[in-house]
C-alpha cells in the first residue's frame, strides 16, 4: 500500500540557563506563541509535546553537564516548513538564538521523510541527527541546504544569485 510521505524535522539546542533564569526570559515568553504559530501554519502536521515544562527530550553529550534539548515536528513537505522557519515571526527568534542557546555539534538540525501518520520519537530524531553529523546528507538524514525527495533522489537546488556565474564585462559587450 502506498503511503504519502511527510517531512520530520528536529533540532538540538543547549539553553544558556534554566527556564527561570533571566537570560532565558524572552525565549520562554515567546515559546507558546511561536508553537501556536507553527501549529496554525499551513502544512504543519504534528509536534512533540514535552511531558512537563518547555523542553522536549534531554540528551547528555559526553562529559558536558549541560543538557541538550530536542525540538521535533512533522510537516507535509519542505516549502511550508521553510515558510514557518524563515518567513514567519519565528525567523526573528532564529536570528537571535545565540542570546539563549550555547553552540552544539553541527549540524544541529536534521530532516527525514516518514510515512504519513507517523509520530517519530525524540530518540529517532537524535539517531538521525547523529547519522547526519557523522556521514553527511543522504536520503536517510539531510539538512535544509542539501535535501532529498521522498523517493531518495536529491532535491533540485533552487537557483539563486550565488548559483550563477559571476558577471564579467565581456558578457555585457557580447549582448549589445
Task: Please describe what this structure looks like.
- This protein has one domain: 2-Layer Sandwich (Alpha-Beta Plaits), CATH 3.30.70.100.
- The chain is 30% helix and 23% strand.
- The chain is built from five helices and six strands.
- Strands 1, 2, 3, 4, 5 and 6 form a six-stranded antiparallel beta sheet that branches.
- Strand 3 (57-61) and strand 4 form a beta hairpin.
- The longest helix is centred in the first third of the chain and has 16 residues, at 25-40.
- It is globular and about 45 Å long.
- The chain starts with a strand and ends with a helix.
Helix content: 25-40%
Poorly predicted sequence stretches spanning 5 or more consecutive residues? 163-176
What sort of overall outline do the alpha carbons produce when their principal axes are compared?
Answer: globular
Q: What structural class results from the helix and strand content?
A: alpha+beta
C-alpha-based Rg, rounded: 19 Å
Provide the β-strand percentage band: 15-25%
What's the order of the H and E elements?
A: EHEEEHHEEHH
Q: What's the domain count? A: 1
CATH class: Alpha Beta
Q: Within the CATH hierarchy, at the fold level, what is the topology?
A: Alpha-Beta Plaits
Mean pLDDT: 85
Instruction: Report the major sheet.
Output: 6 strands, antiparallel
Question: What is the straight-line distance between the termini?
Answer: 58 Å
Q: What is the tally of beta strands?
A: 6
